[in-house]
Amino acid sequence: MSFHPLLLFVHVAGVVIWVGGMFFAYVCLRPEAASQLEPPPRLRLWRGVLARFFTWVWVAVAAVLASGLALILRVGFAAAPLYQHIMFLMGLVMIAIYVFVYFVPYAGLNKAVAAEDWKAGGAALGRIRQLVGTNLTLGFLTIAMGTLGRWLG
Ligand code: HEM
Predict the structure, then answer these.
(1) Would you say the CB of residue 14 lies under 6 angstroms from ligand 1?
(2) Alpha helices in 77-117 (DSSP H)
(3) How far, rounded to the nearest angstrom, does the alpha carbon of residue 97 sit from its chain's CA centroid?
(4) How confident is the model over 95-112, as a mean pLDDT?
(5) Is the pTM of this model over 0.85?
(6) How far is the CA of 116 from the centre of ligand 1 (A)?
(7) Contact call for residues 14 and 124 (beta carbons, < 8 A)
(8) What is the rounded average pLDDT of the residues 76-103?
(9) What is the pLDDT of residues 14-32, one digit of tens each?
C-alpha cells in the first residue's frame, strides 16, 4: 500500500488550516474588529483569537513540513522536480515569518495587553497584520506552486 495519498492528505489539511485561517483573520475578522471595537476590547479580542489560532498553526506547520519532506524524500531531493524545490523554499520562508511573528510581535501584544498599554499593543498588532498579510500572499503563491507548478516541469 502506498502512503502517498495519506501524506498528501496531511499536507493539504495543514495548508487549509494555516492559509484558510490567515484568510479568515485578515480578510473577514480584521476589518470588522477595526471598525466596531475600541482599542482595549479589540486588542483583547485579537490576543484571544491569535492564542487559539497559533496553537493550531504550530500543529499545521509541523504537519505541512513533515509530510512535504516525506513526499520529497520518496523520490529524493536530486530527482524532485523544480516546483517542489521552490515550494520547499517558499514553505521555509513562510515558517520563518510565522516563527518571527510568534516570538516577537505576538509576544509583544501579549505583554502590552497584560500591562494595558494600548499604544504598544496597537503597534504590535499592526506588525502582526503586516506580516500575516505577507504570509497569506506567500501562502497563495505556494499553493499555486504546489499545483500549477507542474507546468514548469
Ligand atoms: C515546507 C516545505 C514543503 C515541502 C517540502 C513540500 C513538498 C511537497 C511535495 C513533495 C508535494 C507533492 C507533489 C506531488 O505529489 O506532485 C507537495 C504538494 C503540495 N504542496 Fe507542498 N511542500 C511544502 C510546503 C507547502 C506549503 C507551505 C504549501 C502551501 C501554503 C504547500 C502546498 C502544496 C499543495 C497545494 C500541494 C498539491 C497537493 C496535491 O497534489 O494534491 N506546500 N508539497
Answers:
(1) no
(2) 82-103, 105-114
(3) 8
(4) 98
(5) yes
(6) 41
(7) no
(8) 98
(9) 999 999 999 999 999 999 9
Our answer on whether the CB atom of 21 is closer than 6 Å to any ligand 1 atom is no
| Cα–Cα distance for residue pair 112/2, rounded to 1 Å | 50
Among 138, 144, 109, residue whose Cα is nearest residue 39? 109
Which residue has the least CA distance to atom 20 on ligand 1? 146
C-alpha cell at 93: 520562508
As a whole number of angstroms, the distance between CA 153 and CA 136 comes to: 25
Whether the Cβ atoms of residue 139 and residue 18 lie closer than 8 Å to each other: yes
- For 42, 53, 94, the CA distances from 138, given in Å and listed in that order, are 26, 18, 7
Grid coordinates representing 57 are 498553526
Ligand 1: which of 8, 12, 87, 99 to mutate, judged by most atoms within 8 Å of the beta carbon?
Answer: 87
Residue whose cell numbers read 498528501: 8
Distance CA 132, CA 77 (A): 29
* 109 touches 43 (CB < 8 A): yes
List the grid coordinates of 134: 505577507
